[in-house]
Amino acid sequence: MKKSTFFSLLVIFLLIPGTLLLGRSLPGRWYYLTATAIVVEIMLPFFAAFESRRPQARELVILAVMAALAAVSRVAFVFLPYFKPLTGIVMLTAVAFGPQAGFLTGAMAIFASNFFFSQGPWTPWQMFAYGIAGFLAGAVFHGRKKWQNPFVMAAFGFLAVLLIVGPLLDSCTVFTMLTTFTRESLLLIYGQGVPVNLMHGAGTAVTIAVLGKALLKKLSRLQTKYGMLEGNV
Amino acid sequence: MTHDAFSRCHPAVNFLFFVAAIGCGMVIQHPAYILAGVVCGGVYFCLLSGRRGFARIGMLLPLPILTAVLNPLINHRGKAVLFLVMGKPYTLEALCYGLALGGIFLVMLLWFGCYSAVLTSDKFTSLFGSLIPSLSLLLVMVLRLIPAFTRKTKQVLDARRAIGMGAEQTGSLRQKLRSGMTVLSALTSWALEGSIITADSMRSRGYGCGKRTSFRLYRMTGRDWVLLILIGGLFSLVILAGGTDASYTPVMKAAPLGWGFPAYCALLLIPTIFELKEAAAWHISISKI
Amino acid sequence: MAHFHIENLTFSYPGSAVPTLDGVSLDIEKGEFLLLCGRSGSGKTTLLRQLKPALAPYGKRQGEIFFDGKPIGELTSREQAEKIGFVMQDPQEQIVTDKVWHELAFGLENLGCDPAVMRLRVAEMASFFGIQDWFHREVAELSGGQKQLLNLASVMAMQPEVLILDEPTSQLDPISAGDFLNTLKKINRELGTTIVITEHRTEDIFPAADRVAVMEAGRLTFLGSPREVGLALRRSESPLFSALPAPVRVYYAVNKEGRCPLTVREGRAWLSEEFPQGAKENALTEPACREPDGEAALVIKECWLRYTRTGPDVLRGLSMRVPRGSLFAILGGNGTGKSTALRAVCGSVKAYRGSIEILGKRQRDYRPGELFNGCLSMLPQDPRSLFVKETVLEDLQEMGADQTALEETAARCRITELLLANPADLSGGELQRAALAKVLLRKPKLLLLDEPTKGMDSIFKAEFAAILGSLCREGVTVVMVSHDVEFCAEYAGIVGLFFDGQLITTGTPQTLFGSNSFYTTAVSRMSRHVFRNVVTAEQAAALIKRNREEAL
Questions:
Q1: Cβ contacts of B5 within 8 Å, gap of 6 or more
Q2: Tens digit of pLDDT for each residue in C338-393?
Q3: What ipTM goes with this model?
Q4: Alpha-carbon distance C442 to C358, whole Å?
Q5: I want to staple B215 with a disulfide (CB 3.0 to 4.6 A). Which of A222, B249, C46, C105 is the partner?
Q6: Do the Cβ atoms of C213 and C36 come closer than 8 Å?
Q7: What residues 136-195 of chain A have any CB closer than 8 A to a CB of chain B?
Q8: Please, what are the domains in chain C?
Q9: Protein fold of A56-226
């Protein structure tokens, strides 16, 4: 068994249940800390796998470039302040380089960009949400040339943001703001997020539909030229 | 870049402090503890960011009030019903709970604000550089690229404007979107070309030829060890001494304050005291000249 | 034993029929300072990269390279990293990390250097290069010159035996470039590091080199001391002759053979010898200046500008008047506000006092979009910023001009053969011409250029100047901001000197540079003790010849 697989199993079967148990014994708002801790723990195997692989220079640079591009991308849309192409770029990177690279790009993009704004209780949640966006896109589309139609990917991006990425971002609010977890109160918080998530999803879909083909071409040219990020999923 | 005394301590000291302060701040909902957190966090935040800090805190203060007003609309438990809203009880307990919740959120925002100012990327990477070498290298690379890309994007936008291809001149949403995409895709090509040079530069300086070490910008001094032990000690005292329990709905009750509370206050005041002590020492040494 | 022994090296890129390197043989001695000259595309970069295994391009290679007597392929990746340092052209992209200190330490971290040793070496390098003051700074805050110095320092921190540099100063302004080259000389002299460098700005580096190698079309055509190579280039009438330092060019313009001066100092001595009693004819008649009565294309009156409310003023009462159809060059040091002046004319930044009049109409009276459509266009400092598509042609088409206009403009800017190329693959000079073509498709009447000659070799500069000249004859007004004194002296109609946010003085190149003693061309500095208003090599040669004829 590979070291990183072993580590993932360790996290899933020991660390997370352990955290839950320990969390219960804490006073007060234990569920908040526990939820955040679990989010961080789920990310650990991704990071550990990356570390244990000892990435090459070109791989490291390309991930850094894509993460930075995602983080900076909204600057190009100064005239459309609500348009944020971050998720779209993360997903396209994932389609080109696979779920793991996608996860890292998403998580790293938001983590680094928070150094320029402010880290906050939202940081782990954001890292996880954008990371998952990359992971999902990579898991579905990476290596499946036939599926990589810009409009299929755009539709996928829209749904993924609306159903998974957006609600994950809202979950941070849920754990900060709620005092009771009734169906009513949960609906209220998640419901409030829907317009923002619709916007976010639309931005993602447009980014993928417009940029998708060209960006994937550029990335695959680099990939064949330098044999980067091959054979790791 | 901040220059307060606590920021000059070893990153491990800074990190442990924020783990303790933010961890406790997140979990403990005892009103006295929350109040202590708001006061200590606010004072240190102002020390770090000066006049802008006051303004920022002024902006954040309505937050607990807002959550206090809103919470009873969601949470209807509690005995002291103030009035009915849409047939549902609006209770005093839920109001207080909302206030406490807003307080907790405020405490966290304050401590995270301090964290961002104190634990710069330099410190973060030197803390975790040897534990996660590749990831922390990835992080510093992204941190270099973000300002470079931002500047480049602005350059391209400016350049296009000056040849009559700017976006604001062309109006419609569709055109704005297309123009933004053109810029973004140009930026992508430029960035990917640059990546080849960067990768060359890395390999030419020996990246990948063996195990990496990391440059130590910070060294642990005796003072840092003392602080580390002090913070660790107080942190455990707060947890072990208990007395942090409090609940609001359905019934308001709070545990009597024990030894944990003074320990908590002492813990949170460490950076402030440290800064004031150094400032005093500095003034004394100046007055002697 | 030679440090590098290159034996009959031939190299071709995959899919290319013509070899990029063709039978190159060269010995590079230990501690030598070798300058490699050649036009862009002559194979210089390819040769340099062959000397550093980590950077050697893929392709078919014949012949051998020995490093310290060992075939270079046998070096481990660690050895090549430690012993052979390589500095590339682009200051920005070579940097890996976000902080200066981290960048200095990066190479040593890779080698797994012991932390204590690393501290010492980094401290040493920071002191040697004068980096202490910005040791904790963000890389993003550094100027281009500082970035390139940082690249050099972080390579030197690994204590290489050889330092290879590929056009390291082509992206820098002349003053930073001079500093950089002086540092190189210091490294060579004080540390004994072998240096191999390619460079098209030869004024400083040519006299300092031990040997000069000349490459043309993948072959090594000349090799010898700077003087020998100067003479050889003169004899073969190579186009590269125009890239040599001014004293060499003046000398060989009037003499067939002989030992040429290399530096301004030697040039002055030679002229003193030539005219012991001073020159009889010591001035050229100046062409009449087109100023000042002609119609003005651009008038700036008392402009004051600052970027932040409390920041310093960048423009401090700038006033200037540019006559229609002239080539107006603004010269000045870094940070004097030259580029800001251009941005103010474009309206990217707003002056808080003063007025700007473009083509007889006040700037703020233009409707949005009207200004940049047929009136005013600007070529930015980095021409790459203008290209957003995959080929030059697509980029030109983006401007919405019809096919004939496009073809005409392409022909005029001499980029017809480059239309299908990717903008990223063009050389500095080609890119600048392509950018000019894109800008010209808007048919501007006033054209602003920001540092257009950056990264161009002397031959490209002449071509570029010819295009600008033809534009001016058609009535287009060109305003350029530049550091390039030699270019402005040769081609500009009016020159203005910018200092401290204002235009201090304007005049023809001859009067302005003739009266300056420091901020002027090498020819002027070399000849001012015998001639009064000579600023270019051609003028100097003409005057020397005329004096000689009179003496006969």
A1: B271, B274, B275, B277, B278, B279
A2: 889 999 998 888 889 999 999 888 888 888 778 888 889 999 988 999 999 888 99
A3: 0.90
A4: 16
A5: C105
A6: yes
A7: 176-180, 182, 184-185, 188
A8: 4-236 (3.40.50.300), 245-287+522-552 (no CATH), 296-521 (3.40.50.300)
A9: Arp2/3 complex 21 kDa subunit ARPC3 (1.10.1760)
